[in-house]
């Protein structure tokens, strides 16, 4: 079963000249990432690697200019403030979130998702916050609720602005989770039978009707986004939207599948700086 | 570009009240309304907006720069910046010609305020964004087209 | 009770560059509630003004055509660092808000 999947993947990606590491002994997350960067810098020699954090905006000056104008004074600052108030409010036990997480919450987001050996699975920063809540007398937040977890993270993640993505994949269990995420990213799904890679690797920088497709590098460092400067979207909500767009049934937020996908996906943006709570169309 | 002239001619044919009042000497051009009255905001087409603003026959001016996108990322929040290099600029109005209520905002400037306004407006569809500037008792205008599309893989 | 306005005012050469972010829903009055089908009542800022050291510099009208959480940027020649900018707004329901900032 595993060999079949690997062969399918290789056949699919061979045309791109990307050596998918799944079947070789030389593969590492870092070499996978370097392959993607090499693919993109060859395809688009005029786009700087550090500009990939802007996604599709790196390919269109008119869009980037609007992003810059809105980011000058984002309309959703009041929402982030709500998140800040949540962050600063002590939990039932009297402890604060800052006491639960490393470094008071500053410059930590780039380390997530992380493989938790004790739990035997990938954990996101959202999971860490919920663990903190439960350990201190509060109910866990519904992880995809924009009004609770969403707002809190829209603030918390800004405390890591500028931090370089630093997702680590060490040990056999972590590697298996990473490979599962990579598998999800590169395998075709849905009625439209597209893989994430069909658009975001093969066609990053190209147009799909009126939309410019963002490349996979730089994808994971700029969340949450405020679409239209107003509606809060998390990365996993975007996964669900994309899956729906290819007419696939999406697993829920915080599922093993989506967490493993985010694990792989984030490792592909290692070395790029985070910036949370940004404007998107 | 000639849409404005067409609209102005249309309303002039109906003898706009302000034009008649000006001709009769009842309403001096410089008195023609400081900040645009609410009636201008209720107007449903550019011609009526201009009429209610008292901005009859504005002159096209290259000294008005409109910074706005070619294609709006999101019609709910379109950044628009108007810079007027015309000496004595005393007001700037921003009109989205195809909006149901075209007049979006207008600003009287005084006390050292420069001919510059930056804001974000809503656009319902591709349209000319028109700036109407009052300076030295005269009215000037410029326009830029902004396209509004329906997104694709929004998700 | 509206959330506070944010004002950033800095000197750029001999011109004070003022940026204001207002907190307001700016409901046009022509949108329909997707669940009830009823029109959502208009609720937007109608008037905004600004002064520097007590002298009015801007007197504007807004409409539902201005984006939610309105942004306003303007420039004033004459003020210097340390001068005070005050911005006021009123909406169609009579709600008001005022904020001030020192030009940096």
Q: Which spans of chain B have pLDDT < 50 for at least 5 consecutive residues? A: 1-34
Measured between the Cα atoms of the first and last residue of chain B, the distance is 37 Å
| Number of beta strands of chain B | 9
Element pattern of chain B in H and E? HHHHEEEEEEEEE
Q: Cα-atom Rg of chain A, whole angstroms?
A: 19 Å
CATH class descriptor of chain B: Mainly Beta
Q: At the first level of CATH, what is the class of chain A?
A: Mainly Alpha
What is the number of E strands of chain A? Answer: 7
Short description:
The complex is a heterotrimer of chains A (281), B (155) and C (104). Chain B is α+β, with helices and mostly antiparallel strands and 155 residues long. Helices cover 20% and strands 36% of the residues of chain B.
Structure commentary:
The complex is a heterotrimer of chains A (281), B (155) and C (104). In chain A, the strands form 3 sheets. In chain A, strands 6-5-7 form a 3-stranded mixed beta sheet. A two-stranded antiparallel ribbon of chain A has the order 1-2. In chain A, a hairpin with a 2-residue loop joins strand 3 (207-208) and strand 4 (211-212). In chain A, helix 8 packs across helix 11 (256-267). The longest helix of chain A is centred in the first third of the chain and has 15 residues, at 29-43. Chain A has a single domain, classed as Cytochrome c-like domain (Cytochrome Bc1 Complex, Chain D, domain 2), CATH 1.10.760. With 281 residues, chain A is mainly alpha-helical. Chain A has helices spanning 2-14, 29-43, 61-71, 77-88, 97-100, 125-135, 146-156, 172-186, 196-200, 235-245, 256-267, and strands at residues 114-116, 121-123, 207-208, 211-212, 225-227, 231-233, 278-280. Chain B is built from 4 helices and 9 strands, in the order ααααβββββββββ. Chain B has one domain (3-148): Immunoglobulin-like. In chain B, the strands form 2 sheets. In chain B, strands 1, 3, 5, 6, 8 and 9 form a 6-stranded mixed beta sheet that branches. A 3-stranded antiparallel beta sheet of chain B has the order 2-4-7, with no helix packed on it. The two termini of chain C are 28 Å apart. The model of chain C has no long low-confidence stretch (mean pLDDT 96). In chain C, the strands form 2 sheets. In chain C, strands 4-3-6-7 form a 4-stranded antiparallel beta sheet, with no helix packed on it. Chain C has strands at 6-12, 15-21, 45-52, 55-62, 71-77, 84-91, 96-102. Chain C contains no helices and 7 strands. Chain C is mainly β and 104 residues long. Chains in contact: A-B, A-C, B-C. The interface between B and C is medium-sized, with 34 and 31 residues.
């Amino acid at each position: 079963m595993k060999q079949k999947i690997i062969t399918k993947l290789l056949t699919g990606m061979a045309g791109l000249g990307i050596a998918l590491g799944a079947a070789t002994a030389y593969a590492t997350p870092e070499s996978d990432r370097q392959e993607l960067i090499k693919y993109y810098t060859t395809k688009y020699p005029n786009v700087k690697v550090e500009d990939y954090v802007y996604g599709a905006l790196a390919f269109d000056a008119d869009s980037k200019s609007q992003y810059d104008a809105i980011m000058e004074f984002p309309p959703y600052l009041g929402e982030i403030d709500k998140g800040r108030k949540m962050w600063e409010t002590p939990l039932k036990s009297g402890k604060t979130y800052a006491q639960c997480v490393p470094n008071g919450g500053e410059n930590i987001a780039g380390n997530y998702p992380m493989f938790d050996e004790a739990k035997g699975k990938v954990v996101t920063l959202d999971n860490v916050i919920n663990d903190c809540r439960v350990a201190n007398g509060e109910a866990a937040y519904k992880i995809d609720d924009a009004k609770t977890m969403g707002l809190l993270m829209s603030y918390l993640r800004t405390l890591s602005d500028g931090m370089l993505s630093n997702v680590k994949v060490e040990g056999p269990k972590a590697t298996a989770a990473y490979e599962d995420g990579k598998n999800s990213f590169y395998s075709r799904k849905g009625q439209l039978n597209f893989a994430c890679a069909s658009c975001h690797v093969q066609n990053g920088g190209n147009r799909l009707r009126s939309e410019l497709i963002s490349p996979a590098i730089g994808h994971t460092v700029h969340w949450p986004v405020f679409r239209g400067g107003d509606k809060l979207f998390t990365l996993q909500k975007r996964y669900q939207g994309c899956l729906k767009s290819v007419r696939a049934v999406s697993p829920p937020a915080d599922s093993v599948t989506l967490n493993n996908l985010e694990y792989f996906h984030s490792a592909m943006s290692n070395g790029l700086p985070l910036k949370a709570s940004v404007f998107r169309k | 570009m000639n849409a404005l002239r067409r609209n102005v001619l249309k309303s002039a044919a109906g003898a706009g009240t302000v034009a008649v009042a000006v001709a009769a000497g009842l309403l001096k051009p410089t008195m023609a309304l400081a900040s645009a009255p609410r009636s201008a905001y209720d107007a449903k087409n550019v011609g009526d907006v201009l009429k209610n603003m008292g901005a009859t026959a504005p002159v096209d001016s290259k000294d008005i720069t409109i910074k706005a996108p070619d294609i709006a990322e999101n019609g709910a929040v379109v950044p628009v910046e108007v810079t007027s290099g015309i000496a004595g600029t005393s007001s700037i109005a921003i009109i989205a010609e195809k909006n149901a209520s075209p007049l979006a905002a207008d600003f009287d400037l005084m006390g050292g305020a420069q001919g510059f306004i930056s804001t974000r407006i809503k656009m319902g569809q591709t349209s000319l964004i028109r700036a109407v500037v009052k300076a030295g008792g005269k009215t000037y205008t410029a326009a830029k087209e902004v396209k509004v599309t329906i997104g694709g893989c929004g998700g | 009770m509206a959330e506070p306005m944010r004002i950033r005012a800095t000197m750029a050469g001999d011109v004070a560059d003022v940026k204001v972010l207002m907190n307001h829903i700016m409901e046009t009055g022509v949108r329909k509630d997707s669940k009830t089908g009823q029109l959502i009542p208009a609720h937007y800022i109608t008037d905004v003004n600004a002064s520097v050291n007590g002298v009015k510099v801007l007197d504007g009208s807004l409409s539902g055509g201005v984006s939610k959480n309105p942004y306003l940027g303007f420039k004033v020649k004459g003020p210097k660092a340390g001068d005070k900018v005050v911005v006021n707004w009123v909406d169609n329901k009579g709600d008001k808000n005022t904020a001030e900032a020192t030009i940096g």
